[in-house]
Amino acid sequence: MEPTADSTVLQIRGAVAQRLGQQRFNLWFKNSTRFALTDGFLEIDVPNPFIGGWIENHFTDQIVEAAEEITGRHLQVSFSVNPTLMRNLKKGQLDHQARVVNTNEVRSRLRNGKQGSQTPVRKLRGRLDGFVVGASNQMAFSAVQDVLATPGGGYNPLFIHGGCGLGKTHLLQGLANGLDEERPELKWALLSGEEFTNQFLAALRRSELETFRNKFRHLDVLILDDVHFLANKKATQEEFLHTFNAIEGVGKQVVMASDSHPKLIGEFSKSLVSRFVAGMVVKIDPPELETRCKILRHRAAQMKRDVPEPVVEYIAERMDTNVRELEGALLKLAAFSNVVGQPITMGLAKQALAEHLSRASTIIRLSDIESVVATFFGLSPADLHTSRKARTVALARAIAMFLARKHTDMSFPEIGRYMGNKNHSTVILACRRIAKVLEEEGTVCWRTPTGRCEMPLATLMARLEEELAR
After folding, report:
1. What sections of 377-446 are H helices per DSSP?
2. Could you tell me if residue 330 is inside a domain?
3. Are 240 and 139 members of one domain?
């Protein structure tokens, strides 16, 4: 007897738990994910974009290996936001996630060109020939192509910024794969701000700073994702500044990506910001309608599914958020088509996606708000989901709640559930507190590793809303 889809999914989850260990699996997967198999894809529902991004960045390899072990096939992994899963998360689990985010140690990927790697290098998923280009990302894509053709040329440094799920990491991985295949003589490294931080701290503890510096300062191309992770980390910023100067000073290339413009990353040194904006700073915007349609057609072709053009337009017109959610909607539609045994039609799409389409835009908008606010204060979105009441965290959380009420149609209870299962009264009080300070033209203050900061709240809010509108 062939296993059912449900039993296969349970086996895959068990295999993932075996690879990660039960403690890590319980922390990130047990209450906060839902797996489903659809047409060669493993779709993973997550409660919010932050948790989805963390799982994608840290555990995709283990998930793919586990799925291949159970099914005997190589499955692509896709993530989709399902905010109802937030109800399953406990305060202790959210607090623990935030602690892990701030202390986690992971390995980077390093390529040493013809001199050979110290460890085998896994092929990265993102490829430039698989990147769907449109008006919203054309400039970023062209800049990456130019870097691949002439590292250290006109676009140096290159700084790409934009919201969650818009393709920043795809472009960085595509550049790395292009360097690997087309410029094998070059030494390059691709890692996140978190990985750079953890490797620096590990080298510091082991008195191996010289080895660390030799590893990075003699690269031809340094590619750093999530550079905003360096915020609030003074020693790491100083080390990265020296690394940056060593690479860029001899005409080599630095490429970075962040959720926010460099001027709006809180607690970044002026020296770093001035170097970032001296190069090419380019934003990836949410895809416009034509690009959204192209993305859906591209994914449907990969899935080998016949999706009528009116259905493509129906989804694209109602989802103007990000690539990940577009793909998630298409996967849900394909799964529903399989379950009912009917081809994809407009009627089926409306039936299958009614709830998904109704909640997608506000959830993604709130994730953008969280990301912009957290980055400004040198925090992570995970910090805002915790029960911590430290001044900086509490202020950032209150501002995010206020902006969510102002810029989305989410209710007080919905915002509270999304931001760590807070009671709706917590959201109401936070919004009232921020509104009162704005009405009185007051200032707010918060603590950073370098001391106390103070700013008129109206000025702070204007900066945040400017970034949200970019």
Report:
1. 381-385, 391-407, 412-418, 424-439
2. no
3. yes
Tally of domains in the chain: 3
CB 203 within 8 A of CB 235: no
Give the predicted TM-score (pTM) of the model.
Answer: 0.77
User: For residue 254, what is the DSSP state?
Assistant: E
Per-residue b or e along 314-337, where b marks 16 or more CB atoms closer than 10 Å to that residue's CB: bbbeebbbbbbbbbbbbbbbbbbb
φ/ψ of 119, rounded to 5, equals -135, 155
Residue 315 carries which side chain, given as an amino acid letter? I
Q: In what order do the strands lie in the sheet with 34-38?
A: 34-38, 41-46, 76-81
- The CA distance from 42 to 461, in Å, is 40
Q: Pinpoint the alpha helices (H) of 138-192.
A: 138-149, 168-182
pLDDT digits (tens, 9 = 90+) for 302-345: 888 999 999 999 999 888 777 888 888 888 898 889 888 899 99
Q: Which two tokens stand for residue 444?
A: 């707010």
Tell me whether residue 321 is in a domain.
no
Q: Are 197 and 233 in contact (CB under 8 A)?
A: yes
